[in-house]
Structures are given as structure tokens and as C-alpha cells.
Prior knowledge:
The chain has a seven-stranded parallel sheet, with helices on both faces. It has helices at 22-33, 45-55, 69-83, 106-134, 155-174, 209-222, 232-242, 245-255, 259-262, 270-277, 283-286, and strands at residues 13-17, 37-42, 59-63, 88-91, 137-142, 180-187, 226-229. The chain has a single domain (13-286), classed as NAD(P)-binding Rossmann-like Domain (Rossmann fold, 3-Layer(aba) Sandwich). It starts with 12 loop residues before the first strand and ends with a helix. It is of the alpha/beta class.
Amino acid sequence: MARRRPRELRGRAVAVTGAARGIGHATARALHRAGMKVAIGDLDAALAEAAAAELGGDALGLALDVTDPASFAAFLDAAEEAIGPLDVLVNNAGILHLGPFVEEEDAATRRQVDVNLFGVINGTRLILPRFRARGGGHLVNVASSAGKVTPPGIATYTATKHAVVGLTEAVRAEHEATGIDFSIVMPGVVKTEMIAGYASSPVVKEITPDDVAEEIVDALRTGRIDVWVPRSLGRINRVMAAAPRGVREWIGRRLGIDRITWDADRSARDAYESRAAASDPHLAERS
């Protein structure tokens, strides 16, 4: 099969959710550097505006609550009014509550499902009709390597990321021959506030938000579907998937991979957990 010619990104319009910090912010910077017009969406509107101001021209920051379809639709409308029809949507917003599943409060469970899963569902459902009407576009859903494996200590987060992988695969199958591209981003342990307190591992190398951002840029240029960061995780996943369950679990224990989240220092996560707890302003309304 002939190698796909890299797509030119300069002048195209992209919207990135949860882009005032972390992976989303790094992605917005990388895409802007590549010449794209960027709309930054975040629950913290002031921080989104500051992030856009940092980028300069062809960037704007907008308020966005991904759990609210009306807010998401307004975000897309405002982005398109300012920078033109969107060629790309990066569903990046996500949160993580860490600890044994049986100790997790119901509010934390619902919050992760609302932000990590329904946030992606809302964005996917709202952008696809726009892409279909134009005969093309690229949807990037940021999942996690936890969307393919099952680390203890982050059970609900893992469930939401498995769901994002499955959702994207199924929706992609529904849109064959439409000209729409889909990418599933599956980073490993990324050095952001989200992994505060994680236990160290001699075999799991931490990556940076910029590492993830550069792979997203590459996926937009090449149309790559499975975006593992680092790419070696993809090879490891294929090997592990072919092994019997007992062998997979033995390897995980020997390498200490299963301890990274389970042995995390939860006291080191107070600042992040407090901010994550406020990430769904409509949760009380739905209770």
C-alpha cells in the first residue's frame, strides 16, 4: 500500500478541549506552531483566555463544560465563528480520582464518567454532523494506555478510557468512506498534575505533555488511528495481548507495572483531587 502523503495543517482550524493546562495546552501550542488556527476550550474560562493570549494570533480561549451538550455546542459555534469551519476536534478533557474502587465516593465515580466519557460522547456527537456536511474532518479522542490495560487503583478512570476506545472504534466503523479520519490517543504515564503521587517504576518511563502533543500533530498529518505514546507501548500491548492471562499478570507483577497506581501516595494528590472535584459544575443537578 502506498504511503499516505502528509496532510498540510497550516491554515486549518482546530478545537481542543481541556486545553488550558496539561496535555491539552501542549497540544494547542504544537498545533498553533504547525500553523493551525486554534480554539482552546476549558471549564476555567480565564485560564483558557490566558492560554490563547500566550499563543498569539489565530488563537482564542473559550469557556467550555464538556459535560453539558449545550455548552459544547456553543463552544463549537463560537470557535467556528472566530476561526472558520473546524477541520479537527481534539476531545482531550479528562480527570482521574485515585484510590481503591470500594472507597471511591459516588460523586467521584459519576464525575469521571461525566467528564471522561460523556464529555467525549458530547463532542463526538456534535462534531460529526459538521464533518459529514463538509465531507471530511479529523476527530481525535484522547484515551489512555489505561484504555487497553487494567491498572488497580484507578478502576473508574480505566473504565471510562476503555469506553472511549470502544466508542471511537465503533463510530469510526459507522463512518467508513465519509472522508472523516479518527485517531485514538493512548499515552502512558504523562508528567502532569494528574499523576501526582504515582509510585515510580524502573521500567515505565514518564513522558511529557509535549511528547503527546507531537504525536497528535503527526497523527493529523498522517491519518494514524492508534496513537500510542511512546510508540513502544503499542508493541508491548500487542505482545501482552497475545499472551495468556496468567503470563500477562506475571509479567506485570515482575515489572512492577501494577504498583504504579496501587502504591501511589494519595496524600500528595490533595491539590489535584480538589480541583478535579470541581470539574463538573452540573453534577449536583443530576443527582
